């Protein structure tokens, strides 16, 4: 028997319930009501619910209604800023209005989203040193003006400083360089004020990174910034796994080491002019250069990811690491004797100690005798080589225990939700990753009429994806569709190389045939700018790699064709994926079935999900990977896709696309 509370929740979604008063043409959605009542039950029983809800289910209201009716303190965490802003500025106010309720709502973003007054002040004193160009000097002064007028100090509110301006890292803080209570601006600091508001909120919207920081107490500045909550909702939960992998990793980044030395130069001469701070900086910078060039030479490449266990010549990096260690020790000694001189010097002293720990650890890794002092569980040491930097990472192969114990310590219900958490209704892969074996799992299909609204065309006769001419053939096959559709297409590629080949070929076809086509390509402009142009400019095609597979919502006529080049299996040379696969194999499990296929399915569902975003959308999805038809695992993947009409016939697909262009009745 449903409780009174569960019935009360269901009533909100009734045909003539409160939601109908604020929503045009409101129609109750059974899946939304079931989701909401499941959250209500989880709240009553203190359970964890893992819920997959297809696009259009209305999951935000489904979890918000029970939480608000119960008058509980709720923490909502999202993966990205877009959903955070949408919840805070649109969904939550609309729901509160519908329910006739008031509630203290707060939005807390990561610290890099707020101007740091202390660093801004420092940058203004040294603008010729901090700002790298005349443009950045202009940006710096605009930020100064804004900071003087703004109440929240949120950088997203500044419209005349581009998001990618190089000045931002100089005027925002990190956990490493924030002076905390020792800062002169502590009492009027934008970050601290946002955190104070967060403490008082009844409903707080944060991101997964802050959520993980809170549960791991990793960032000392924010150990107590989140109060107790009665319900935790993790929306966009499919991204929790990647975010957690990065979050729980420890990284030595040579760019940060150089920055540490540069910060010491800018502070050091103020406390002791006798020390050759510039000389120390140069020694550190040279040691970093030496480490980078030695690694490039050994690997014979400037772009690679590699597990240390697979690096045969690792002993050759011991000497460059010793050189770097000596250089940073020299800096550390110089800073240490002046650590009481100012809060900045105290902080620099702490940063030197942390850097030394990491450098020592990595010297020992390459010496073959490292033991991590601060991390537990099976760990993977690996590194990413870039032309001007190297990232040395230590990553736990599983963080399931950390999340599990955090949930047990909190002892409150959690709801984890997303449109893609399961592979054909099987949540095992996700549950194993997040360590919530006792969670109840439920899923609801999208309420859209996929069979009528969409068609999936599988190109049976293209070469196999491993063929050298595969991407060229993909471009040839999809061009007639793109031309017929006047663009309005997303081409989602699994690699940057495929993206380059396909976009070049499409540009060539457009030029030689004299067709006006606006081919927008990832990395040629910022993501926001590409999406803005895609929405507003006619005949647009957006060719992108992974960053466009999810979190992009384009409704209506602007997008009616989505192309996916290959099944997005995890890259086999990704060291973390390889490390996790080996762990599973060691337990006698099949890593292809347990990791590769579920991950490919979830990402493919995300990519396919870009096509139909509301009940009026129509469009064609083209999948160019014939392994869907020829391989045994293909059926499993095929079944997991939205229930579109399906065809292998070019003309049928083309006719469907033409039909999508007809005016809608
Ligand atoms: S407390 Fe930290 S974030 Fe705030 S102004 Fe000071 S240094 Fe910046």
TrEMBL record:
<keyword id="KW-0067">ATP-binding</keyword>
<keyword id="KW-0378">Hydrolase</keyword>
<dbReference type="InterPro" id="IPR006555">
    <property type="entry name" value="ATP-dep_Helicase_C"/>
</dbReference>
<comment type="similarity">
    <text>Belongs to the helicase family. DinG subfamily.</text>
</comment>
<dbReference type="GO" id="GO:0043139">
    <property type="term" value="F:5'-3' DNA helicase activity"/>
</dbReference>
<dbReference type="Pfam" id="PF00270">
    <property type="entry name" value="DEAD"/>
</dbReference>
<dbReference type="GO" id="GO:0016818">
    <property type="term" value="F:hydrolase activity, acting on acid anhydrides, in phosphorus-containing anhydrides"/>
</dbReference>
<feature type="domain" description="Helicase ATP-binding">
    <location>
        <begin position="18"/>
        <end position="315"/>
    </location>
</feature>
<dbReference type="GO" id="GO:0005524">
    <property type="term" value="F:ATP binding"/>
</dbReference>
<dbReference type="Pfam" id="PF13307">
    <property type="entry name" value="Helicase_C_2"/>
</dbReference>
<keyword id="KW-0547">Nucleotide-binding</keyword>
<dbReference type="InterPro" id="IPR011545">
    <property type="entry name" value="DEAD/DEAH_box_helicase_dom"/>
</dbReference>
<dbReference type="InterPro" id="IPR027417">
    <property type="entry name" value="P-loop_NTPase"/>
</dbReference>
<dbReference type="GO" id="GO:0006281">
    <property type="term" value="P:DNA repair"/>
</dbReference>
<dbReference type="InterPro" id="IPR014013">
    <property type="entry name" value="Helic_SF1/SF2_ATP-bd_DinG/Rad3"/>
</dbReference>
<dbReference type="InterPro" id="IPR014001">
    <property type="entry name" value="Helicase_ATP-bd"/>
</dbReference>
<keyword id="KW-0347">Helicase</keyword>
<dbReference type="InterPro" id="IPR045028">
    <property type="entry name" value="DinG/Rad3-like"/>
</dbReference>
<feature type="domain" description="Helicase ATP-binding">
    <location>
        <begin position="40"/>
        <end position="270"/>
    </location>
</feature>
<dbReference type="GO" id="GO:0003676">
    <property type="term" value="F:nucleic acid binding"/>
</dbReference>
<protein>
    <recommendedName>
        <fullName>DNA 5'-3' helicase</fullName>
        <ecNumber>5.6.2.3</ecNumber>
    </recommendedName>
</protein>
